Structure formats: C-alpha cells, structure tokens
Amino acid sequence: MYISLFISAFLAATILPAQSEALLAYQVSIAPDLVLKLVAIATAGNVLGAIVNWWLGKLTANVRQKSWFPVSEKKLLKGELYYKKFGRYSLLLSWVPFIGDPITVVAGILREPLWSFIILVTISKCTRYLVVVGLVSTVFA
To answer: What is the reported pTM?
Structure first.
C-alpha cells in the first residue's frame, strides 16, 4: 500500500506522465485513519521526484546547446524568463499539471539553492495532497 503510493507520487513529479492523486484518494477512502501517514508518504515521493527534476535541470545547463537536446533553446529561455520574473516563489506552483514539472527543471537550470527548493516544493506538494484528502473526506463522509 505505502510503496505503491510512494512510487506513484515519485513518478508523477518527474517528467514522466503519471499521476498519484487517484491512488491517494483511494487509499484514504479505504484507510481514513492513516490519512496523515498517506499524505506524508505521497508528499515525500513527490518531493523526491521534483528533486530529480531539479538535478536534471542542473545537468541540463551543461548540455542544452547540444543538437540532440530535446528542448529548444527558445523554450528554455522562455521558462527562464518566467522563473526570473516570478522568482523562487513560482515553485509554489510546482503542483500544477503541465507547468509544475518544467518549473522544477528550470529551478535546477538556474541553480536555485536546494534548501529553498525543497521547502517551497514541499509546501506546494503537501498542500495539493491535503486538498485531495479534503475532497475525498467530503465525498465519502
């Protein structure tokens, strides 16, 4: 039960197409007494997946001009401009589908310190999972 949630949350935070909210919702619905543990496990997996993105971003800085690199320089520059405009607090949107993963990668490219990255991403990811739990508890109450 816990390992599947952790893996699902981890993969959902990487650049791979995955999601973890449905599994969390299901597990909370069958084990509501474990809600805090389930949220903690999902958050930990999701934050660790985001750290992988941050690390990949740091590595990207060295290879982004290579012809085989899958993201154009124009798109990278656009992401960097948004990140610079809104600053590290844009990481609070790291939970948002489609933009959250790129934000965490750009944070690595721009060398966001790991400590601030972890704090802001943890706030973001945990809040999202608490909202999911809140929705589940109102539906299954």
So the answer is: 0.88
